[in-house]
Amino acid sequence: MGKPKIGIYGLTGCAGDQLNIINCEDELLKLFDIFEIKSFVMASSAKDEEIELDVAFVEGSVSTEKDLEHLQEIRKKSKILVAIGHCAVYGGVQSMFMGNEEWMERYKRVYGKESAVTLTPPLEPKPLAAYVKVDAVLPGCPIEKEPFLKLAGKLAHGVVPRVPDYPVCAECKWKENECLLLKGEICLGPLTNSGCGAICPSMNIGCIGCWGPIAKENMKSEAMLLMEKGFDMDEVAKRFAIFGGVERAEALKSLVSSSTKESGK
Ligand code: SF4
Ligand code: SF4
User: Which of 105, 125, 201, 257 is at 20 to 30 A from 77, Cα to Cα?
Assistant: First the structure.
């Protein structure tokens, strides 16, 4: 069996995920040894777009018609499609208001006329899974080197990895960190997918949720906990909205206010 053929692509985003792949300096030669890289425009102008791929890594959200076309072409020729980075997995900060019909009004407020600054018509920013089947994900803003290498290693052995279904707090406990919530600081670890190794709380910085909201979150219990700790819910909701979306941040806030009413506080 030959080496797996891979392509690394970017849609609308900051290209930070592709950059972090290039930043795997010590392991880069090994990656080239294991995989046959057919397209990686950030690293090389040599590319072969005609060939079928075993794995395509795609970063960025679908934010234009051109993005959508590109994504559909990639999907057609790839056996496994991996969304890398928050934009590809959840839509990124640009999709904070996803589902809100007023997105074009906001777009015009920023850019003036709808067609003034783009070469391709804009679309409401959405994650890849809104349009095509996604086989695996690696969240993060941007992705981290170590989780990427682990993911690449599994794919090289034909294993399609899944994101763990426990929150950042679990990794934080394994590192024996003192909980920031107990120190009176806002940390979104309980609401966020693990996988980053609790990098921020390990440096005494509250998690802002860049690995995205955990699927099995217990919003009600989190709301109660934050309320008990006396956090400013507007501030918590603002932070949660950055990577979790405005709608879910509002839901968290309203859970707190209904719990407050129930308990008569
Ligand atoms: S510091 Fe944050 S991530 Fe760590 S245990 Fe506390 S809430 Fe969870
Ligand atoms: S601790 Fe939170 S904000 Fe920091 S990298 Fe991990 S998920 Fe992202």
Answer: 125
pTM (2 d.p.): 0.90
DSSP 196: S
Distance 39 CA to ligand 1 centre (A): 39
What number is the average pLDDT over the span 10-30? 94
* Ligand sitting nearest the alpha carbon of 212: 2
Ligand 1 site-directed mutation target among 166, 171, 177, 191, most atoms within 8 Å of CB: 177
Q: Please, how many CA atoms are within 13 Å of residue 37, restricted to the half-sphere of its CB?
A: 21
CA of 198 to the centre of ligand 2 (A): 6
**Residues 187 and 93 reside in one and the same domain:** no
51-77 pLDDT per residue, tens: 899 999 999 999 999 999 999 999 999
- Is residue 60 within 8 Å of 13, Cβ to Cβ? yes
| Residue 198 token pair | 């609790």
Are 107 and 152 in the same domain?
yes
